[in-house]
Amino acid sequence: IASIPQHVTIARLTAARGLLRQAKGWVDSFKTAASRQNDTSLFSSQDLQVSPVNLTRLMIEVGEDFRYQAKRCWVHISTDEDSLLSFGTYSCDEAKIRNALMCIIDNAVKYTKKGSGETVYLRGEQFDEKGRLGLTVTNVSLIKLSLAEQRLIFDRWFRSEQAEREHVQGMGLGLTIAAEIVKLHGGELLVSQSDVSTQNGT
């Protein structure tokens, strides 16, 4: 009987745990969307369960959770761990921030051309003089959004015409969820586009 090397077993278990965390996050998101489909917002401040959270650990962990998914698409994920070390502990709703990060990174991976060998970059920074934290997610997108589409990108159920033509999977809900969660925590989700890449920042 052939044995599986220990490092392979650990990698597979890590990937499995990541997939389970992702699955739980998606289920929670869709439950929320279904229960509040007629409401203006998907979340309210009453939904927050705030506690001290090690954001450095959380962001690195979410990046690692997507490594397996990205690898299957021949896309790489590069997490600048040094830039995340200064984040430390922050009071927030861990489950919801994890969900927001999942939505953002999932969006970046999905919209990076499969088989391209391109890299999705995750980097942290001090966002402003008030000490707010920022996470920048950068990818080389396979689609280009018009200015009108960029204004709609956080609208619930929005899908660009090119995304439909390219058969990119999705429901037009992920960035809506991410933007609302970030806003509940006093932040803002921004999208910028250049000829080289599309960038998501929180």
Q: Which tags fit this structure?
A:
17% strand; alpha+beta; two-stranded antiparallel sheet; 202 residues; 5-stranded mixed beta sheet; 45% helix; 7 strands
Describe this structure in words.
The chain has helices spanning about 5-35, 55-65, 65-70, 80-85, 95-110, 145-150, 160-165, 175-185, and strands at about 50-55, 75-80, 90, 120-125, 135-140, 190-195, 200. About 45% of the residues lie in helices and about 15% in strands. α1 crosses α5 (about 95-110). β4 (about 120-125) and β5 form a beta hairpin. The mean pLDDT is about 80. The protein contains 8 helices and 7 strands; from the N terminus they run αβααβαβαββαααββ. It has about 200 residues and is α+β, with helices and mostly antiparallel strands. A 5-stranded mixed β-sheet has the order 2-4-5-7-6.
